[in-house]
Amino acid sequence: MNLGFTEAAFSKFDHVNWNTLKFSDLVENIVEKVVPKESGLEHYIGLEHLDSGSLHIRRFGKTESLKGDKLKIYKGDFIFAKRNSYLKRVAIADFDAVASAHSLVLRAKPENVLPEFLPFFLLSEIFWERAIEISVGSLSPTINWKVLAKQEFLLPPKEQQAEIAELLWIQDSLLQKKISLLGKLNTLRRSMQKELYCKKDKVKLQNYASIFGGFAFSSNAFKNSGTAVIKIKNIVEGKILVDDVDNHINEGQFTNIDKFKLSTDDLLIAMTGATLGKLGVVPEEFSGAYLNQRVGKLQISEEVNRGFIYGICDSEFFLLELNKYIGEGAQGNISSDDLAKCLVPKISTEDTNTYGNKFDDISSTKDCLKKDISNLTSLQQSLIGQVF
Q1: Count of CB atoms within 10 A of residue 11's CB?
Q2: What is the full DSSP assignment across 44-91?
Q3: How far apart are CA 209 and CA 337, in angstroms?
Q4: Which phi and psi angles does 57 have, rounded to 5°?
Q5: pTM of the entire structure?
Q6: Which of 28, 147, 333, 366 matches a 20 to 30 Å C-alpha distance to 232?
Q7: CB 120 within 8 A of CB 384
Q8: pLDDT tens by residue, 160-195
């Protein structure tokens, strides 16, 4: 979608002839309670199934295990999270379902607002600023329907609503196609991982790489400048984030720590607690940096494709292997020796290239899609901001 054209299209909308309406003029609050097991409905939409800033429901639960009365939501209704309003969660139901009692089920009043326009108003900062402002409670700020119903907002006449909605749905459709393609790539990647783990013989990870743990630097060893030290917190989504590296050491303080030095393309694996299995690849700018404790380093053999190793280690199947070695400690630590013993698919060097190249292609395409999704999401927010 052409950004310049879109912005130009939205520039023609001004607030002339807009009308002030109460929120209760726009929607009705549907309070139809059901017993989930007796509802005949399979899907449950809880607050945990809503994504901040997205109108679309991509996951849901089952009604069979629910207790207590819930709300019924019909296809086309909105599920609005009234708890923790700062998360800005509202979505359109694509099917009849059971909804959380901690939500509001809202239905557009078409005599005042077009159902296709309302979703984007509900994503606007104007709306959420007011919703957050009227929330009550400190631990879990909650919106009261009676208070929300009385709030007044400025909305365009219905002919403008139709034009705005058409443009925004075109943009949203492109965004959803990108998100759908990303999901398909994730499915393809998992299928490859499953094929490798379920159909191939196994070998210890140490057959593919030399494995080391990090050095236990004391906190008082860290300086504001010097040689960088990479910690678990610096590993984010497969990368080592440059701006997050704030720990350094004076190399002259230490002896015999060369084995803890990092080289470009070393694969790092978190070996503790909730971060267990988190992966990152060392970029060129951190070649020569040191590795902190609780992070494992894989120096991958030259004849083995790096993309293959990353592809099999960045999987639920490898995480199951890691969990076999969790110790008794509260954080669930594993050692570099444990990491070395983890079983992974055994394939030929030639096949590591075949699979590694496929994993690399998927990863590069995913990176492009993530960038597109981020840009399109920002564009959507910008366009909605221009309207309201």
Answers
A1: 9
A2: EE-GGGPPTT-------EESTT--S-EEEE-TT-EEEE-BSGGG--EE
A3: 12
A4: -100, 115
A5: 0.84
A6: 366
A7: yes
A8: 999 999 999 999 999 999 999 999 999 999 999 999
